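input
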Amino acid sequence: MTLTFATASDDAIPVHVLETDAVTGWVAAQSATVQAWVSANGFKGGLGKTLLIPGADGAPVAALAGYGTAAQRKRGRFHLASVAASLPEGVYRIASGLPAEHAEEEALGWLLAGYAFNRYHTQTGAKARLVAPEGVDAQRLQVIAAGECLTRDLINTPASDMGPDALEQAAHDLAAQHGAAVTVIAGADLLTQNFPMIHAVGRAAEQAPRLIDMTWGESGPALVLVGKGVCFDTGGLNLKPGGSMALMKKDMGGAATVLGLAHMIMGLGLKLRLRVLIPAVENSVAGNSFRPGDILTSRKGLTVEINNTDAEGRLVLADALALGAEGKPDLMLSMATLTGAARVAVGPDLSPFFTDDEAIATSLALAAARVADPVWRLPFWDPYEAELEPGIADLDNAPKGGFAGSITAALFLRRFAGDACRYTHFDIYGWSPASKPARPKGGVGMGARALLEALPDLLEL
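output
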């Protein structure tokens, strides 16, 4: 889906953004006819509320957009996206009232309000199109919106149409768009080229497991993005109950998010060398499924005891992270729908991340606040390292006890990222369980815009 701003024209309907306490003053400055219309319709400037003002012929000549109070706005984001969704089809421009510091967030939210996933059923997003507000980089926001739409489309597509084959094709399509290169190692070649854990997790599925490796850029600092591409997760032999399996089409949300972020990076022409690594598998049940009690030897040489086949994401990520670290990049990031513990800890809106680098943590927090893409730091808590060591192997893929599941998973991944590069891990949810402004129910990008905003600082671009 392509979301674009409207071209400025004299016919664009002016939108006056009014906080609750500004309504009375604005109305007092209008004609008696407008005053009567606003009063008759009871418009009070409530957050997200709208009112069209008709001209003499009945056609709208202006629109009022409620902006509520500062306290109300703190409880959400993309408030004008609700306005976009409630206005009729047409072209609009912000005429007054929108604070300059919120213009980019609200313009992007308005743009994303036009998103709808209609591959299987006709749906439409908001039809009210916006002229980019003054001072906003329209082209940049359109590229960001396109990356977000890519992420959403990939997550929303069910595994029947988004298995490892289709995920690989999505990477090829993206590469072709930006002049990137893609290589793929699949099936038995994963064993001969030393990706044993990716192979073990995906070998029971009809579609072969694979490692997708996309590269772009010839100069600048090296950035590696690693995304979990488990296209469907049954839990393996530790089979999930039906209720827990219902959303497992989104278990490739990490891969979808790094592909969306990659689109943003390439589309904006950032001066860096990008590498995207996606271990793409389906965790299925068959006679050759990997088993509880198995011990796997990873690409890095560390042995891993399998105590739960439903903790498979960290296994495929481990081999990919080991490969990424071998190139000694300036920064490596992993994104994964990895643990339910992260969702329980911070809910579906926040993107929890782990890093040992204080500068990265600070840059991410500041960037996230600027672009309304909230993140929250969780600790690489070293005292929990012992929980990962089962005795019979170097590592345990699913420590018993049920405590700090997101932290122990992140510590597991850190063992494979090593000390060769600065490393940060995101344990995202990748799903909006209910419709919110600019975020319909379904797949959603998390953390990508914060990372994009922080990259110039993180990599000194």
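quick obs: Residues 138-156 form the longest helix (19 residues).
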